[in-house]
Amino acid sequence: MPDTSRPNGRGRKRNSETPSRSLITILNLVRKGTADTRQEIERTCELGRAVVADRLATLAELDLVDETKTGIATGGRAPKLVTFHRNAGCILVASLDQNSLSIGLADLSGRLLTEHHEAMELSLDPRGILDRLVKLFDWILARHTDAGTLWGIGLSVPAPVLTPSSETFLSATPSFLPGWEHIPVVETLIGRFDAPVWIRSSVETMTMGELSAGAATDVDTMLFVKVGKRIGAGLAVGGQLFRGTKGAAGLIGQLPVTDAGRTGPLEAMAGADMIQREGLAAAQDGSSSYLADILARMGELTPFDVGQAAQAGDPASMDILSRSGRMIGHSVAYLATMLNPEIIVLGGSVAMTNDTLLAAVREVVYRESHPLVTRDLRIISSQMGSSAALVGAATVVTEALFDPDLMRGWIVQGVPQTHPGFRAARDAAADRLTTTPAPPTPPAPSL
């Protein structure tokens, strides 16, 4: 395990009177681009020149800011620009979806440096998937040895994650999926990489991804709707994700909808399972020669195949996607009328394969929502694809790391691993790894 108490020789021992509050304020001003010269920092913080100079010297020593670049002169000497050293550290991110595993490496601004995606069945072998995740993280760090010290890990998972609001650092894996209850994901990652871990639902991370680097970077209120095997929604207000009391906001997949005389939960009636099931029926009963050909060649049919067929103009597939879109549109119309978002973004595996579902959602929302809500409302598909969850996971980590309350525990030393709360979480995670029994081995299939 690497020693991160004073990584790369950075940081020096300081007494308890170190003014960490002004260090935090100045660093966040620079990090967010609010102030990029000493003069702007002095005006914004209302601090004296000598104080600002001392704090910037400290932040530079900690390798968190840089003053080597020069700005544009406006009648006198060109000012030195103060910039955030986003390459001082890095963040590992991963997205576990029902049928895929994605990993990435981001800098301290949350910008993805690289990403990797591969097919995977989430429900088949949880222990094997965790082992694969660790190996991929090792691999990506080995390829980017110049990325700096690892500061944190962000995970995106396809289910709600209920985490205690009072817990600053995770030391145990929260429950998020059936079959994963005894898999020590958080404990293993902390023990292997000596970095704090944050875990959020894929709806939340994809919403954060759209906020930080997608279609909603310049909007105040956004409704994000993920359409896949599960259907969920994320709400951003004032540029901030709304999580609800326990992180369970946006579970719209359980809302009841009715189609052709049948009533059931939205995700069962309109999600990926329904699309796959109806597509298979169309291939087998002769309704779609296009899908029948795919089934004959591949031996199976996926929701992605139905979406691609709809995009290619197959009438049966277009009807399936339109029905799904209309049912989703009914639920979204209620949300839009209540929340009055500036933009609605559709994402997820099903929504990204074709325009048919988007058109059906638009039709219903524009027809059923209040005219004042729809007058300037935009409804679009996400352009970020599978990167949205990775970018959002990185954003979750950076927002947590640079939260002023949390920064008070590490800013003097320059890295979050020195925070007393993380040290306690690391010890607790290590204890759990040594005391938690391995999950039972599933019985071999009978002959």
Structural notes for this entry:
This protein has 447 residues and is α/β, with parallel strands linked by helices. It has three domains: 66 residues, Orthogonal Bundle (Arc Repressor Mutant, subunit A); 165 residues, ATPase, nucleotide binding domain (Nucleotidyltransferase, domain 5); 167 residues, ATPase, nucleotide binding domain (Nucleotidyltransferase, domain 5). It is 42% helix and 19% strand. It has 16 helices and 14 strands. The strands form four sheets. Strands 5-4-3-6-7 form a five-stranded mixed beta sheet, with helices on both faces. The longest helix has 25 residues. It is globular.
Q: TL;DR of this structure?
A:
By secondary structure, this protein is of the alpha/beta class.
Q: Treating each run of at least 4 consecutive H or I residues as one helix, how many helices?
A: 16
Taking the sheet with the most strands, its summary is: 5 strands, mixed
- CATH secondary-structure class of the largest domain: Alpha Beta
Mean pLDDT value: 89
What are the key terms here?
447 residues, alpha/beta, Arc Repressor Mutant, subunit A, Nucleotidyltransferase, domain 5, 3 domains, five-stranded mixed beta sheet, 16 helices, 14 strands, 42% helix, disordered N terminus, disordered C terminus
